[in-house]
Amino acid sequence: MRFGNKKRSLVFGFMALCVMVSSAQSRQAMENFENQLKPLMDEMFYAPIDNQKFNANEKFIALMADILTYPKSFSYPFERLTSNNVDSMRISVLCPTDNRFRIYTWSIKNDFGEVENFGFVQVPNPEEKENFVYRLFDKSEESIYPEEAKLHDTNWFGAVYYSLITTKYDGNSYYTLLGWDGKDIYSQRKIIEPISIKASNGQPTFGSAVFYKEKNRKRCIFEYSPKANFILRYDNQFVERRLTKKTQRNKKIIPQSKTEIERDMMIVYDSLQSMFGDFESLPQYNIASYEFNGFKFEKGKWKRVVGVVPRNKPDKIRDKQNEDPNKSNIKKKSGLF
User: How confident is the model at residue 320 (pLDDT cuts 50, 70, 90)?
Assistant: First the structure.
């Protein structure tokens, strides 16, 4: 039986109305959930004593774990929890460009200045009504060789992540997190953390052998003094490359070298040095040297590069095609990172 144009319009209109109502109800439900989370978040960050902070945190975790299983929560922005005001505490929510997963992280400092990190990984599950949700347990102080260990949700090297890099090679996607760990009053840490998601159940794995010619390395950890202004970020920056060629002069082969500067996207970081030469093994004395190195993604690996040259603007002669006058100087920081 065929519908007439009028009947068909009525059916489609009714279906569209149902979708709109369902969408509005879902949005309202998520806003109600966020309204319950917000006061708990404020208490766990700003309560005057530790018992109040951590009790509120456990309630926040229990409620958040339920909310994240709800399919509509994956696309919900959680704007009241993720304020961009750098003077306020907030939840970090990151998602790669292909929407493969979401990662939520935050930290709480106790009265002794020690920081504990918390988080969730959320993965859409199209075959079921509920998302995969994994709570992250910070076991950073229990790891003996943390730069060489593959870790999971139950033994996570905790950090608050502020950048998620998506790179591709040979049809595969690679995800890399940049994070900050407040640790304690003596030192802080920043981390380059590869992450992968198991296809069958969404379980996260932290750390991977994706560092060129460093097969034992699974992540990079930089530990330094809380007073240091240490930079770790993904940026479009310059690197010096020394090119050597041989020329023949008076029947003698003479090597000649020249330095060229190229520009590309890379993870850029400060080299660390001790404030005191006799304390090189103590990270609480490490400060930035303002000599920058980096990692460039090539053929599925992060390849270390030396001699990054941070600049406010590209060199107009050497880099006309890539000129970007709006790119900020890498030494300029915003917030913690």
Answer: very low
Cα separations in angstroms, 289 against 224, 258, 280 = 11, 25, 13
Q: Residues 20, 28: contact at Cβ < 8 Å?
A: no
SS (H, E, C) 119-142: EEEEECCCCCCCCEEEEEEECHHH
Measured in whole angstroms, the distance separating CA 147 from the mean position of its chain's CA atoms is: 17
**What's the token pair of residue 194?**
């590869």
> Cα dihedral sign for 39, 44, 47, 49?
positive
CA distance 196 to 193: 10
**Burial of residue 156 (number of CB atoms within 10 Å: 0-12, 13-18, 19+):** buried
Q: Which of 31, 182, 41, 185 lies closest to 104 in space, CA to CA?
A: 41
What is the rounded distance in angstroms from the CA atom of residue 95 to the CA atom of residue 88? 21
Distances from the Cα of 139 to the Cα of 91, 93, 142, 158, 191, angstroms = 20, 21, 5, 7, 15
Both tokens of residue 196?
Answer: 């992968």
pLDDT tens per residue across span 14-46: 334 343 345 667 889 999 999 999 999 999 999
Instruction: Name the residue among 213, 151, 188 with its Cα closest to residue 283.
Output: 188
First to last CA, the chain: 64
Tokens read off for 107: 């930290």
The span from the CA of 124 to the CA of 53, in Å, is: 30
